[in-house]
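Ops channel
N.P.: pipeline sanity check, posting one input/output pair.
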């Protein structure tokens, strides 16, 4: 959340001439509601299966694609297995949690950060770090990089 997945993903898709999928945008298009509305109305438990459906759809693209998967996809063993089974090249855009809070709060669709944004981000980092490590083929520290620099590093061997 706030690491630049969508911006960097769009840059990479353009450079590679591949389709681009953003799992949050896919969920919103499918449901006609924002992620925030889904969380507020139905809760996180209702959102997670929608997130899985979007990821599986993106991974099943008939041509290689760039996917900006929501940060929570790693919480599901089904999603982690799907990433392995589809031989997805997973890049973790890692940033300092305080920077992520600052970036994420600039946008209005971050329902998990409603109460205690810094504490929530630190808890999410603690809960998810080992899961990101488990699925990531590459880790890029994005704290002081522009989106173009991050895209360059993603494409570097």
């Amino acid at each position: 959340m706030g690491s630049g997945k969508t911006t960097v993903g769009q840059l990479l898709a353009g450079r590679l001439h591949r389709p681009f999928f953003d799992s949050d945008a896919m969920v919103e298009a499918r449901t006609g509601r924002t992620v925030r509305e889904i969380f507020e109305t139905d809760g996180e438990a209702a959102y997670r299966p929608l997130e899985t459906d979007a990821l599986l759809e993106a991974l099943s693209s008939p041509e290689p694609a760039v996917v900006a998967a929501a940060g929570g996809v790693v919480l599901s063993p089904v999603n982690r297995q799907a990433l392995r089974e589809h031989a997805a090249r997973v890049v973790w855009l890692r940033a300092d949690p305080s920077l992520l809070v600052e970036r994420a709060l600039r946008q209005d669709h971050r329902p998990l950060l409603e109460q205690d944004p810094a504490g929530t981000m630190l808890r999410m980092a603690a809960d998810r770090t080992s899961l990101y490590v488990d699925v990531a083929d590459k880790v890029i520290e994005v704290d002081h990089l522009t989106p173009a620099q991050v895209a360059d590093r993603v494409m570097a061997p």
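N.P.: looks fine end to end. Residues 117-135 form the longest helix (19 residues).
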